[in-house]
């Protein structure tokens, strides 16, 4: 090759290298070396560890707060349940007292009605219209008793069946004994005061006459 042409080509190659060197240096400047990359990875790993510890601490604090709130909620539920039970007990006691007064009123009306039915006026009183007057009062008392029984039934108060049943000490109180050979021992043959159940639980025991063949109380 002609030395002159060779020299021209070498000059052009030198010019190309001179122009490409700054670009290569700039490109190499933006690319980190292996040591810098490892250092950055170590820093990132350390930051992740710190953040993980912070997240764990925050979770532990949240768990502690949640446990406290759960315990408080449990205590609150218990207090509300006890309060509801107390309120229900107060209502039951108030209802029981009112029902006992109604039963006492019913006993008085029933006793008056029985007395009027058993009363037999003299001949002169019958001619004076006393019998019709007593019958009208007795009918009024019967209506009052029926009204009271309806009120009691709406509150789930029902009488206890006693006569013709075996004596039950949980719902009956034996106030008298009788000697009736045709009935077995412990058989209820009479009732002196009606007993009642409230919601299938004892409200007032019945006072009954119990049969004893040997006559012993």
Can you walk through the features of this model?
The protein has helices spanning 3-29, 34-118, 123-127, 130-154, and strands at residues 157-159, 172-178, 188-193, 196-198, 201-204, 206-211. The mean pLDDT is 82. The strands form two sheets. The protein has a three-stranded antiparallel beta sheet. A three-stranded mixed beta sheet has the order 2-6-3, with no helix packed on it. It is rod-shaped, with a radius of gyration of 52 Å. The chain is α+β, with helices and mostly antiparallel strands. It is built from four helices and six strands. α2 packs antiparallel against α4 (130-154). The protein has two domains: 63-155; 158-217, Head domain of nucleotide exchange factor GrpE (Nucleotide Exchange Factor Grpe, Chain A, domain 2, Roll). Helix content is 65%, strand content 13%.
A few lines on this structure:
This protein has 217 residues and is α+β, with helices and mostly antiparallel strands. 65% of the residues lie in helices and 13% in strands.
List keywords for this structure.
Nucleotide Exchange Factor Grpe, Chain A, domain 2, alpha+beta, 2 domains, 217 residues, 3-stranded antiparallel β-sheet, 4 helices
Give a topology summary.
Blueprint lengths: L2 H27 L4 H85 L4 H5 L2 H25 L2 E3 L12 E7 L9 E6 L2 E3 L2 E4 L1 E6 L6
Parallel strand pairs: 2-6
Antiparallel strand pairs: 1-4, 3-6, 4-5
Helix pairs in contact: 2-4
């Amino acid at each position: 090759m002609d030395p002159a042409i060779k020299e021209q080509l070498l000059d052009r190659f030198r010019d190309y290298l001179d122009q490409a060197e700054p670009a290569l240096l700039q490109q190499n400047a933006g690319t980190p070396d292996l040591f810098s990359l490892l250092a950055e990875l170590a820093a990132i790993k350390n930051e992740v560890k710190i953040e993980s510890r912070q997240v764990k601490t925050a979770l532990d604090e949240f768990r502690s707060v949640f446990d406290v709130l759960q315990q408080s909620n449990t205590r609150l539920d218990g207090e509300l349940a006890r309060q509801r039970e107390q309120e229900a007990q107060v209502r039951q006691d108030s209802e029981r007292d009112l029902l006992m007064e109604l039963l006492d009123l019913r006993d008085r009306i029933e006793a008056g009605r029985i007395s009027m039915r058993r009363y037999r006026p003299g001949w002169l009183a019958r001619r004076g219209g006393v019998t019709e007057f007593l019958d009208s009062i007795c009918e009024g008392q019967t209506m009052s008793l029926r009204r009271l029984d309806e009120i009691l039934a709406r509150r789930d108060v029902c009488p206890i069946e006693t006569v013709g049943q075996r004596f039950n000490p949980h719902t009956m109180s034996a106030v008298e004994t009788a000697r009736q050979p045709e009935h077995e021992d412990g058989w209820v043959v009479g009732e002196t005061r009606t007993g009642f159940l409230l919601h299938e639980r004892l409200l007032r025991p019945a006072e009954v006459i119990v049969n004893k063949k040997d006559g012993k109380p």
